[in-house]
Amino acid sequence: MVYKLSEEYNPTGNVVHSIIAEQHAEMALIRNLLGDASFDKGNLKFLLAKYPNVSIEEKGDLICKIMNQLWNEHLISNYFEVFREFEKFLTLIGKRDHFFHQFLVYLIGINTLQLLLKNFPSENDRESVFGFKEERHIFFTWLLAASTHDFGYPYQYVGKIAGHLGNLYNSFHMDELGHRFSNINIPIDIGNENELLTLKYGCPEHGNEAINMADVLKDTLKSKLKLGDHEVNDLCDLIIKDQANDHGYVSALVLCQNVYRSIFENKGCIGFPGSVISQSLQYAMSAVAVHNVASNEFLTKITHDKNIYAFLLFIIDNIQDWYRAHTYSDIYPNFHLVKFSRKDSDSEIVLEYIIVSENWTPTLVNSINENIIKKRELLQVPASIGKKLGFNISVKYHMIRQPKPEEIAVSY
After folding, report:
1. Total-model pTM
2. Backbone angles phi, psi at 244, to 5 degrees
3. Which of 43, 132, 220, 256 has the least C-beta neighbours within 10 A?
4. How remote is the C-alpha of 363 from its chain's centroid?
């Protein structure tokens, strides 16, 4: 079933209309992957084609199946199912969705990369811009970065999750059990978390070995963001201390640990040469580590000529908003994507949202407006630095309480 929208779409706020339009937009988003030979594996295209036409619960199942195929199953196993389970606990403490968000960031990024690759047809140009000559290696690197960039949230909020469970048990007058959970409700210090910072593995030639993940990440930040020693140390201090164990830094460590472990356990049988895996992981790790950096000083260092994957992840992570709240609340409205288009001739990505809520309060309206202003400011930072890549992003937000949509238009 195909739904058509007029070009002059005028949102009414009708939830059913919004959902139908959302299905149409998702079809447009996925259509470009179905025509790409890079996705000719197993029944991947069949799973992708089903995605816009099923319920939200079925979409979750499809994401797990799609990710397992894209990750080759030898490289990473069932982590997306595990992260989906963690989402239930994150929702309990009032956090927005990140499971669907990661997948949709991945899809928007693939569309953007497809557009950019048309601007750089020669292998030498591609290697200069993307670090690789082959499209499949470029897409694989984006997969590593986009689909794992929020894996650190369950770690960052373990104290709040445990504290919430403790309060629930206390409400049932199960005070001793509640106290056990509440005792976990303390700030986590990454510097003392050896399980996160150290990877131990068995090596037939040398016995048990250990890798310091923090050192690996620091070396990666130096290499793939072209930062000096002092800059790397300052950056790590910022995202560990000032940003309270930032989930991006933790996600990068989780990504590195699990890719390394998969390689050791599967003896490198993952479909790519070791040199490609190493380079892809370094680009992705550094992109994930800095995607949530709040300092303008460091945002100016996330440029496409240093690491295009970090550059794109920062931009698209800030743009992607639909499916971030599955239930209506006073805290988070629902963003329905009603239009997605990719205009290759103009090198432009266009997204259009309707913002829906059951309870429009002045506080909620002000919060949305402030959020859009912040997005606009953040997205302008990387656009203002260095040579342009040659593509544009346009995002419109329709809110029922406002006669005109808010728009963010940026040239990169």
Report:
1. 0.89
2. 50, 65
3. 43
4. 28
User: Per the structure block, which two tokens stand in for 98?
Assistant: 């990140």
CB 331 within 8 A of CB 357: no
Q: Which two structure tokens, joined as six digits, stand for 344?
A: 């290759």
The residue type found at 204 is P
User: Which amino acid belongs to residue 117?
Assistant: L
323 band by pLDDT with thresholds 50, 70 and 90: confident
Q: Specify the higher pLDDT residue, 271 or 255.
A: 255
Closest residue by Cα to residue 352 from 315, 309, 399: 399
